[in-house]
Amino acid sequence: MKSSENFYREGNIKFVSGDYQGSIADFTNAIESDPRHTAAFNNRGVARNKLNDTHGELRDYNSALLTNPEDLCALYNRCVARIKQKEYLKAINDLTKYLCLRSSFSIAYFYTVDQNVNPEQYSESIAERLKALKIEPIMVTENKDVEPKDLEVFNNIVAIAEITKYIADGTPLFAESYCQRAELRAKFKDFHGALADFNKIISYAKPEYNLYAKIAYIKDAELKDYAGALIDYNEALLLEPEDEELLLRRSSVKHSLNDIEGSISDLTEIIRLYNDLDPEEKDDIGFYCTMAYSNRAYIKSKMNNPIGAIDDYTKAIKVDPSFFLALTDRASVKLKLKDYTGAIKDCSKSLRISKQFGDAYYIRGKAKFELQDYVGAIKDYKNALKINPNLADAKFELDRADAILSN
User: Fold this and answer.
1) What is the pLDDT of residues 275-331, one digit of tens each?
2) Is residue 94 part of a domain?
3) CA 374 → CA 266, 328, 333, 368, 398, distances in Å?
4) Does residue 119 share a domain with residue 150?
5) Any domain includes 296
6) Secondary structure (3-state) at 185
7) 214-273 pLDDT, tens per residue?
8) Residues sharing a CB contact under 8 Å with residue 52, sequence separation 6 or more, in sequence order
9) What CATH number is attached to the domain comprising 67?
10) Alpha-carbon distance 277 to 282, whole Å?
11) What is the pLDDT of residues 71-89, one digit of tens each?
């Protein structure tokens, strides 16, 4: 009767010859003979990878690591498999542990991928780096198949893992290293980890305004911690009080916290900064001024000040005549004021700029309906639903117009 080790060696030979199904069968026999055969689990996972069985591959690496939590090959292979599954935080944990265990290994040599290399040369490039592992010829060890599309992600994960290892080793790091890890962590949606790194910089370095801005943005856009974001936007604006983007973001946060007066104040400040510029300088912040007028108009509309809203939307359009959102929003206000002809004109202008904006068709359809142009209204409602089938109001209005025509 064959021993577990014999099955294992035969599995390796079949793998090298390209018989992946046969190698899986041999590795399975090896595992049945020895349920704690770490290498057999690992190598069966690599064979499953060749057959694109990512879930089976992961199960085998998990089993390998249950038998030996410090198996380097299984840790590395599971990291690569998790990247394919977009399980990035778990992949980071695996590679960090890998680096800490293999502290004598030259990670810079193995993981640095030349971004200019031809995609067809990637596998060869990775294979060359694997030589540093001193792999035995018939041993199936670490999976070489980091796919070209995953290489940028892989390199980012390596960077996080390297920095984490240096920190664990007690290596003194510059603020830039924490900043790099924070930004990479944010890319992988580890927002709390990113904030911890940014705050580490603040604890021992004189922070610049853009550091507070990055912290505020994560709290605002990703964690919806508006109160926390406001504190950091305030800190950033103390250092850079005329930054239009920060003012715009703080205005939005204040609006979310129901500080309407404070929100309008920030928007008005952006407009003042724009108006104080020389004509040749205005293009640099034209976008922020347009958004400031438009957002202030929206607030005025919600505060039952339609005339003030129309005035601000008009000013936004004057700064940027191609801003179709402001045209559509102004049309919506005109519709409420029963200026149906004006609403139709604004929506038509908006649709000449962007034909794929369903709201403009919907609002124009409502205006046509009020002018008893039911055929035109139906056509606009159908166009709105073609762009956005989930526009429930358009479906309701379409049925209403259809019913009137039917009768």
Assistant:
1) 999 988 888 889 999 999 999 999 999 999 999 999 999 999 999 999 999 999 999
2) yes
3) 43, 21, 21, 7, 9
4) yes
5) no
6) helix
7) 999 999 999 999 999 999 999 999 999 999 999 999 999 999 999 999 999 999 999 999
8) none
9) 1.25.40.10
10) 6
11) 988 999 999 899 989 999 9
Same domain, 153 and 178: no
The total of structural domains in the chain comes to 3
Cα 371 to its chain centre, rounded Å, is 45
Distance, CA of 267 to CA of 367 (rounded, Å): 31
Same domain, 331 and 362: yes
The model's pTM: 0.76
Q: Residue 193: which domain range? A: 172-221
In single-letter form, the type of residue at position 192 comes to H
In terms of domains, do 144 and 186 share one?
no
| Residues 304, 310, 316, 319, CA torsion sign | negative
Residue 317 domain-assigned (yes or no): no
Percent of the chain with pLDDT over 70: 89
Query: Is residue 96 a part of any domain in this protein?
Result: yes
User: Per the structure block, which two tokens stand in for 31?
Assistant: 């595992």
* Nearest partner of 296 among 288, 380, 62, 47, judged by Cα: 288
Tokens representing 101 are 């265990």
